[in-house]
Specification:
Chain lengths: ~250, ~325
C-alpha cells in the first residue's frame, strides 16, 4: 500500500473542494429542494402507515440521495482526469492501482460526508429532530459506507466508459433505479412484492435504513444487519472498482 | 551497457498496426531520438515503454526490468514528459510539482529544494502560486517539463518536448536536457518531428514511419549516407519521364528520387550542376518551375528513406491519431 499516493489524492480532493465553493452550493441545492418540496410540502399530506412523521422519515432518505448522487459524480472524476490527461501522470508513477483507488475514495468520501453533515444541519434548521442514542454516531459510519460503495460504482463506470454522453446515460440508468427502488422516499412495503425484492438487493436500502436507525431510532431492519450489508457492499464495490481501474488504458 | 532493449515490440489497435514489431537498444547515458511524422507510432512506442499501454506482441526491458511483468520497477526508474497536457488545472503550478514529488516519495527537504530549482529553470517562479487554469499554453508546457525533472529519473522519456514553445525557451530546454545528460548521466529518449531538435540533441536517431524503424544511426552517419548535396527541382506537370530517366544516367548524379513533380538529386558540388540540369531540361522540352540546392540535413535522409517529408502528413496524422485513440479505448 502506498500511503503517499493515498494522501496526495485525498489532499487533491480537499483542495479542489475548498476552492470550488460554487460547486458546494450547487450540490446542496437539490437536497434542500427535496427537504422543502417533499419533506415539508408534500409531507404535510402524507400519512405514513408505518407511523411517525414523514419529514423525519425522509431526511435520512435525502441524505442517502445526496450521498448517492455526489458519490457517483465523484467516482466518475476518473473520466475527467482521463480527458484532461492527469490520469496518465498518476498511472505512470510507481504506485499500486489499489492505493490510487483508495486515495480517490478517501478524498471523495470526505467531501461527501461533509456535505451530508451540512444537509443534516439544514434539516435540523427546518425542524428535523435527532433522537440521540448510543447509535447516533453510527450515522457517520453509514454515510462513509454509502459513499464508498457508490464512489466504487462511479469509479468502475468511469474506468470502463470513455465518452461523456455515454457516461451520463449510463449513470442515470444506475442512479434513478438505485434511488427510487430503495427505502429513501417511501417505505418499500408500499411497493408490489416483486419490486420489494429488488429493494432488498439495493445497498442504498440498507444504508438509508441504517441512517434511520441511527438518527431517528426506527428502521425496517435491525441496525447490525444494515451495518453488515453496507460493509459487504463496500468491500465488493471497491474490489470491482480496483479491478476495473487496473484495466483502464490511457489512449 | 544497454539500459533499454526492445525486441519485436508491436501494438495493434483493431486492424491498425500502430507499431510494427520494432527492435532497438539504447545504451546508458545516451540521448536517443525517435524521429518521424505525427502518427508514425512514436508516442505509442513511448507509452508501451512507460507501462501505460500493454504491447500486443514482442518484449522490452527498461532499466533491466520487463515492461510486462515488472511494471512498478520500470516506473521507479523513469520519468516522462507527455506530448499532450497532463496537469491538474485546479491546482497551482507549485502544487502540481509537490504532488508529483510526493507520488515519487521524495523526502520533504529535498522536495522543496528541487521544486525551487525546477521552477527557476522553467522560469515560473513568479507564477508558482497561480492556478494552472490561468496559465498560458507555453507556461503549462514549461511546467510539465519541469515536473518531469523533479524526481531525477534514471531514464527520461520526452514525447515532443518542445512542441508549441517559442524558440528561446526551446533552446533553453535543449541546453538543460544536454546538461542533465552530461552531469547526471540521465538516459534520454525523445520523440520529435523537429529535424533540428533531433540533429542537435541526439547521439543516435531512429526514423519511424508507419510503425516501422526505417533507419537508425548517428545523425552524422545518416547524413553521410546521402553522400553529397541535394538539388530539388520542381517540374511542369507535363510528361517528364524521359528527362528523369536521362538524369539517372548522368555520371555525376548519385541518386534520384521522385515524388509527383518533385525530383531530388544527390550530387557533389551542386551549385555547379544546376546550369547543366537546366540545359538538359531544355533539350527534353521540360519546364523547370523551381530549383533549390541544399546541403544535406536529416530531413533529406528521411525523404530518402520514406519518400516524403516529415511534416507532409501533419494534418492527416492528427486525424489518424484520433482514430487510433478511439480504437484504443474500445
Amino acid at each position: 500500500m502506498d500511503t503517499n499516493a493515498i494522501y496526495v489524492l485525498w489532499l487533491r480532493d480537499m483542495k479542489r473542494f475548498i476552492r470550488a465553493r460554487s460547486r458546494i452550493v450547487g450540490m446542496l441545492m437539490m437536497p434542500v429542494l427535496f427537504l422543502l418540496g417533499l419533506g415539508l410540502g408534500l409531507g404535510g399530506l402524507v400519512h405514513l402507515t408505518t407511523g411517525g412523521s414523514y419529514f423525519a422519515f425522509i431526511v435520512p432518505g435525502i441524505i442517502g440521495m445526496t450521498l448517492l448522487f455526489t458519490s457517483i459524480f465523484t467516482g466518475s472524476a476518473v473520466l475527467w482526469d482521463r480527458q484532461f490527461g492527469f490520469l496518465k501522470e498518476i498511472l505512470v508513477t510507481p504506485n499500486s492501482r489499489v492505493s490510487i483507488v483508495i486515495g480517490r475514495i478517501f478524498g471523495g468520501a470526505t467531501t461527501a460526508v461533509l456535505q451530508s453533515i451540512l444537509v443534516v444541519i439544514i434539516a435540523m434548521l427546518l425542524g428535523f429532530q435527532i433522537s440521540w442514542t448510543a447509535y447516533t454516531a453510527l450515522a457517520l459510519v453509514f454515510m462513509a459506507l454509502i459513499t464508498s460503495t457508490f464512489i466504487g460504482l462511479g469509479l468502475t463506470l468511469g474506468s470502463m466508459i470513455n465518452d461523456f454522453q455515454g457516461f451520463q446515460l449510463v449513470t442515470s440508468f444506475f442512479t434513478m433505479p438505485l434511488f427510487f427502488l430503495s427505502d429513501s422516499i417511501f417505505p418499500s412495503s408500499a411497493l408490489p412484492a416483486f419490486v420489494q425484492y429488488i429493494t432488498y438487493i439495493n445497498p442504498l436500502t440498507y444504508g438509508v435504513d441504517g441512517l434511520r436507525n441511527a438518527l431517528i431510532g426506527t428502521g425496517t431492519f435491525p441496525i447490525w444487519i444494515d451495518l453488515l450489508a453496507m460493509v459487504i457492499s463496500t468491500v465488493i464495490m471497491v474490489a470491482i472498482a480496483v479491478y476495473a481501474f487496473e484495466r483502464t488504458e490511457v489512449g | 551497457m544497454e539500459i533499454i532493449r526492445v525486441e519485436k515490440l508491436g501494438k495493434q489497435f483493431g486492424n491498425l498496426n500502430a507499431v510494427n514489431h520494432i527492435s532497438f537498444a539504447v545504451s546508458e547515458g545516451e540521448i536517443f531520438g525517435l524521429l518521424g511524422p505525427n502518427g508514425a507510432g512514436k508516442t505509442t512506442t513511448i507509452k508501451m515503454l512507460t507501462t501505460l499501454l500493454p504491447p500486443t506482441s514482442g518484449d522490452a526491458t527498461v532499466a533491466g526490468y520487463d515492461i510486462k511483468t515488472a511494471q512498478n520497477e520500470v516506473r521507479k526508474n523513469i520519468g516522462i514528459i507527455f506530448q499532450d497536457p497532463s496537469l491538474d488545472d485546479e491546482l497551482t503550478g507549485k502544487e502540481n510539482l509537490e504532488f508529483h514529488a510526493i507520488l515519487y516519495k521524495i523526502p520533504e527537504e529535498k522536495r522543496n529544494k528541487k521544486i525551487k530549482e525546477v521552477l527557476k529553470l522553467v522560469e515560473l517562479e513568479d507564477k508558482a502560486d497561480v492556478l494552472v487554469k490561468n496559465y498560458s499554453g507555453g507556461m503549462k508546457r514549461r511546467l510539465e517539463i519541469g515536473r518531469g525533472l523533479v524526481h531525477e529519473p534514471k531514464i527520461l522519456f520526452l514525447d515532443e518536448p518542445t512542441i508549441g514553445l517559442d524558440p528561446q525557451t526551446r533552446r533553453h530546454i535543449w541546453e538543460y536536457i544536454k546538461k542533465l545528460n552530461e552531469i547526471h548521466k540521465t538516459t534520454v529518449i525523445l520523440t520529435t518531428h523537429y529535424i533540428e531538435e533531433a540533429d542537435y540533441l541526439c547521439g543516435r536517431v531512429a526514423f519511424v514511419d508507419h510503425g516501422n524503424i526505417v533507419a537508425l544511426d548517428t545523425p552524422k552517419t545518416l547524413k553521410n549516407k546521402l553522400g553529397g548535396d541535394v538539388i530539388s527541382i520542381k517540374l511542369n506537370a507535363e510528361s517528364h519521364d524521359g528527362f528523369v530517366k536521362n538524369m539517372k544516367n548522368l555520371k555525376w548524379v548519385r541518386t534520384v528520387s521522385q515524388h509527383d513533380d518533385f525530383v531530388n538529386l544527390t550530387v557533389e558540388e551542386g551549385e555547379k550542376r544546376i546550369p547543366e540540369l537546366i540545359v538538359l531540361a531544355e533539350k527534353h522540352n521540360v519546364a523547370i518551375l523551381s530549383v533549390s540546392l541544399h546541403k544535406p540535413s536529416l530531413e533529406d535522409v528521411f525523404i530518402q528513406y520514406t519518400g516524403k517529408t516529415i511534416r507532409e502528413e501533419a494534418g492527416n496524422a492528427k486525424d489518424n491519431m484520433r482514430t487510433r485513440q478511439r480504437w484504443a479505448r474500445r
